[in-house]
Protein: AsnC family transcriptional regulator
Amino acid sequence: MNDALRLKVADLLHDNAKLSIDTIAKMLGEAPEEIAKTIDRLEKDKVILRYSAVVNWDKLETNQVTAVIDVRVLPQREVGFDSIAKKIYRFEEVKSVSLMSGGYDLQVTVVGRDIREVSRFVSEKLATIENVTATTTHFLLKTYKSDGVIFDDTDGERRLMITP
Structure:
């Protein structure tokens, strides 16, 4: 299968998951059947894991809080950080876990109903995992841009004043 085509299709779907097969085919100058086969292969190979929308939660009435937690751990022999990351990502509250470079090892994104719920998660579940040595919790206050999408683009609404 054409790796360049796979990359182009994945990139287009990442930017807009609502694009139809026919639209992608026209954009890339390929046959719709070839695009359908490529998408099917990307899904089977677990390159495309899910289709989703970028949502500005601040514009909806939600009772939730998001926290980013830096976690320092002692890696385990022969499995490194993977075993601990697996324990963490299995919790329902956890939205993402990433291995990081720098002062902390893992970055964990958690969503809860309020600050107390996130605090309980950190103190009762996350900090009690064997080999977790430290955590630092940062609460998300406002999102300006996510996944390449600007949330509050008031600059686009400004017009230059033209005087005669």
Helices lie at 3-15, 21-28, 32-44, 82-89, 115-126.
